[in-house]
Write a structure and sequence with these properties.
3 strands, 95 residues, 3-stranded antiparallel beta sheet, 3 helices, globular, GROEL, domain 1, mainly alpha
Length: 95
């Protein structure tokens, strides 16, 4: 496959984003601040990738948080896709 022939995905760790949001609600003070720092650190790359691709990053991040595991945004079609089914996450490609 030639470079650029695959769909341009914006991936996010949907299980982690959703879980961290829920977890933060269970804590107060420094623990909640720390959890929110980690959550924002995970959200930022996804939002930036989407923004740079012409897709509203904040909307995608919020959508990924609500989706099932391993969801991301295909910025060519502006659809949420399962990253494994779309071939973006390929466990056989790990070296």
């Amino acid at each position: 496959m030639q470079a650029g022939s695959r769909a341009r995905p914006c991936t996010g760790s949907s299980p982690a984003l959703g879980a961290l949001e829920t977890l933060a609600a269970d804590y107060e003070g420094d623990m909640r601040i720390g959890i929110n720092i980690i959550r924002r650190a995970l959200e930022q790359p996804l939002g930036t990738l989407c923004d740079n691709s012409g897709v509203e990053g904040l909307v995608v991040v919020e959508g990924v948080k609500k989706e099932k595991k391993y969801m991301g945004c295909n910025v060519d079609t502006e659809e949420m896709v399962d990253m494994f089914e779309a071939g973006v996450i390929d466990p056989t490609a790990a070296r």
